[in-house]
Design a protein that fits this description.
Layout lengths: L24 E5 L10 E5 L4 H5 L5 H13 L5 E6 L7 H9 L9 E8 L2 H18 L4 E6 L9 H12 L7 E5 L5 H9 L35 H9 L5 E4 L2 E6 L15 H19 L11 H11 L1 H6 L3 E3 L2 E3 L11 E5 L5 E5 L20
Parallel strand pairs: 1-3, 1-4, 4-5, 5-6
Antiparallel strand pairs: 2-3, 7-8, 9-10, 11-12
């Protein structure tokens, strides 16, 4: 070559930040301002809900106010969409705001209008799966169930009625919260958005603090108050409910149950939440490797790409120090074999990823004995 030449090529190694959609929920419900129906309304910690949603009572205002209080977050943010359930198909409205031009990125949708039949519960799961297949949105849907009718129902009758809604239902992306106190759904959704707790934490976590602004305690038609036996029965049946501890001040929450089938991995929300967190990120990494021969069947490439795809696991396994106390990360550090890459053809490859959550005590038994030696 007669003359010198320098060529600079910039390579994109997909090392940038991922969008943080966790703790951002989309609320769908009735709205007091009819002119704002179907509009996507951003809500923050400073927002005036009367100005945004209308001055009257409505489902959106009730649940979002409870969520905002229980998030304890000065940076609280969510979206609200008003729905007229008498004429609207809420699922189509959900799809409309998740696709372009809105293209909202949220962790979950919150259906503030109570589901009233088994078919409606199954439709909630269908909607969540449709959001995944159509828009690649890994979302869960948290829906309300009507509270007890104090004029006509005993606790036994209420228990039978709500259990009929979920009999033989398998819906691993759906959680149901009975509106026993009126704003229960918003309370638990806010608790799930508390930045002081990890997304791997159950809302049962007492250290997160007592519930804020939970509505009036319910009674049945015989003026019998809600008791711990009924709370346990509802939780065992897979509903998400508030609870209390005898002799301990404050109201707290039980597990946020999902309607996964018996024996499923996603019977509680924190497990579903961790996997969706990882799925959003490894999908982006996988897209970045399409037709990229840096991912090939050589031992060197497989080893390098195991490290590449393990990045979300490494980030999720970083603990945080708070006042000298180490708070556990979302998952354990990825062990050898957590990422497996297998080629099934010249152009097809499978990547198997395993995440290991930490153990967490939800039932503690204390044994006390005397030492009289």
């Amino acid at each position: 070559m007669a003359t010198g030449k320098v060529t600079v090529v910039q390579v994109n190694n997909n090392q940038g930040n991922f969008d943080q959609v966790e703790r951002v929920f989309l609320y769908l419900g009735t709205i007091a301002d009819a002119e704002a129906l179907h509009q996507v309304i951003p809500v923050s910690a400073e927002s005036d809900l009367d100005a945004l949603l209308g001055a009257g009572d409505c489902e959106l205002k009730t649940q979002i106010a409870a969520a905002r209080e229980n998030s304890r977050d000065p940076d609280f943010a969510c979206y609200a969409v008003g729905v007229d359930f008498a004429v609207d198909d809420w699922k189509e409205i959900l799809y409309a705001v998740l696709e372009k031009p809105h293209d909202l990125n949220v962790e979950a949708a919150v259906l503030c209008h109570p589901v009233a039949s088994k078919l409606e519960v199954e439709a909630v799961q269908t909607a969540a799966v449709e959001c995944l297949t159509r828009f690649a949105k890994f979302i869960t849907i948290h829906a309300a169930v009507a509270g007890i009718d104090a004029e006509t129902q005993s606790w036994g009758e209420y228990d039978a009625a709500v259990n009929a809604l979920i009999a033989d239902v398998a819906a691993d992306r759906v959680a149901l919260a009975p509106l026993l106190h009126g704003n229960d759904l918003g309370v638990v959704c806010g608790r799930l958005c508390d930045p002081a707790a990890s997304i791997a934490d159950s809302p049962m976590r007492v250290a997160t603090g007592a519930l804020i602004g939970l509505g009036e305690a319910p009674v049945d038609k015989n003026d019998n108050p809600l008791n711990s036996t009924m709370v346990a029965a509802l939780s065992t049946a897979r509903f998400s409910v508030a609870q209390w501890y005898t002799g301990y001040a404050g109201m707290y929450w039980a597990d946020h149950m999902m309607l996964d089938a018996e024996g499923g991995d996603f019977q509680v929300y924190e497990y579903r939440r961790i996997m969706d967190y990882l799925a959003r990120r490894v999908r982006i990494l996988a897209i970045g490797r399409i037709a990229d021969r840096r991912l090939n069947s050589t031992a060197q490439s497989i080893s390098a790409n195991e490290t590449y795809f393990a990045r979300p696991l490494r980030e999720a396994s970083l603990p945080v120090q708070v006042a000298g106390v180490e708070m556990p990360a979302m998952i354990s550090p990825p062990a050898t074999g957590a990422i497996r890459i297998v080629w099934s053809g010249m152009t097809a490859v499978s990547v198997a990823i395993t995440a290991k959550p930490y153990n967490c005590p939800k039932s503690i038994t204390l044994y006390l004995g005397l030492d009289l030696s």
